[in-house]
Amino acid sequence: MAQTLPINNVTEITVSELSSALKRTLEDRFGLVRVRGEITGYRGPHSSGHAYFSLKDEGARLDAVVWRGTFAKLKFKPQEGLEVVATGKITTFAGKSAYQIVVEQLEPAGVGALMALLEARRVKLAAEGLFDEARKRPLPFLPKVIGIVTSPTGAVIRDILHRLADRFPTRVILWPARVQGEDAAEEIAAAIVGLNALEVNGPIPRPDLIIVARGGGSLEDLWCFNEEIVVRAAAESLVPLISAVGHETDWTLIDHAADLRAPTPTAAAELGVPVRAELVARVAQAGARGLAALARLAREQRTQFRATARALPAPKIFISQIGQQVDVLGDRMRAARKTRLSVERLTMARLAGRLERHSLLLRVARLGERARATGGRLDAARRVWIGHERGRLETAKSGLWPAFHHAQARRADGFAAMARRWALRLAEAEGLRVRRRQDIERVAGALGTAAQRLLLARGIKAANVAQVFAAVNYRAVLTRGYALALDSGGGLLSGAGAAKAAGEFTLRFIDGDVGVSAQGTPPPFAAKPSHKSPRKPPRKTQESEPSLF
User: Fold this and answer.
1) Domain match, 143 and 241 both
2) Coil, helix or strand at residue 91
3) Are 162 and 262 in the same domain?
4) What is the DSSP string of 195-260?
5) Residues 527, 437 share a domain
6) Considering the entire predicted model, what is its pTM?
7) What is the mean pLDDT of residues 440-458?
8) Residue 249 resides in a domain
9) Which run of H or of E encompasses 432?
10) pLDDT at position 6, please?
11) Which domain holds residue 85?
């Protein structure tokens, strides 16, 4: 006999229903909890923006999740190995049958955790070279514009302005920023970057010096000055920057990255500008020292001048010596001139005696006599030559006249024969011209007749072609009520299959085109297809327009 199982009255539920009931129970019982533990398994934000990690202690482990919107607002970001206090709600994750905490707030578990985080961050940034002394720049001696990043409502800005007014009044640009709480680090970094981005000579000029200031406070209060975004902004600042955060015993990471650290905000104002009264006193002192040095130099120069003047002889002695030298030189010049004149006279006398033997007048007289004698001989020879030549001319004249008349007669006969030859040549040329003109007129008449016959034949042929074109033109077919079916590219559709494949096409009538859409079956009034053999589709001659010939 078969054994039956006992049946109880417990209601059956699904797995999802059980998971939902457990989820509601946990959320109602643990609506808001604060859990302390060490972060483990943290690998940074997920691609979705959510962050997943676990909290553990000596005996247990709790999964944790930070949604994307909450993660962006966290003051302290999760870090592997950091002991924190997480505030949130306990819930379940049905996909793994596990429970977890949805973190809404995260903070380090005590000062020791903060100090460990601060030291780890300091070592990391120092390894990147942000704290090197070599990259720090000297402050300007007398800045014209000072940019201050601090809270506009605190006592810090009043202390700085008061000390600047006492020491050296200068232009101040205040960039207000929160110096404590959430988003304070982003505002401070944005202020430093914004002051560096100002134009040098713009409406709001770029400052020559930046002071980041805040009063004293606890490590948690000053934590925004330890954020990486603030430290990197201070290190990358093109304008020299003074860090004045907290009291003299308070140190933050921005103090290491700044070009100079001031123990207090008031000390930052003192380090930024000198004392105007001291500068005026130093300038006055330097002016007095300069005047005293000039007076001392003048006295020394005057003493040296007097000593030099006493060492020199009297001017009259110089003048008398020079006058005596002039008199001696004058006497020497007069004696030398007399000696020179006597020597020149003797030289001229010797030259005059030598020139008398070669007098020019004597030579001219002798040449004149020789010229007259030569002229007489030339006149006699000229008369003899003229008589001789006259006789020769008379003899030649008597023999040349007959020869001249004979040559003239022969030349006249030659000219007459030449004229007769040229007359014959001109007559022959005239006859040739007349014959050529007749030939040209005959050829022109023949060409005119041939051109008329050719034009007549071409006209008849053109008329025949026009008639054939009019007979086979597809537009003549369209006038009888037919239409052409064209696809979207202007090609001819030769059958119903092509029209259905095209889907939409154009019907071209004689007076215009109509767009139509192909249907599966013809309408009831459509004409029945003919059983005649289909005509071959017309050949396309142009891609732009179909043709039937």
Assistant:
1) yes
2) strand
3) yes
4) HHHS-TTSSSPPPSEEEEEE----TTTTGGGGSHHHHHHHHT-SS-EEEEESSTT---HHHHHSSE
5) no
6) 0.42
7) 78
8) yes
9) helix 360-472
10) 55
11) 15-109
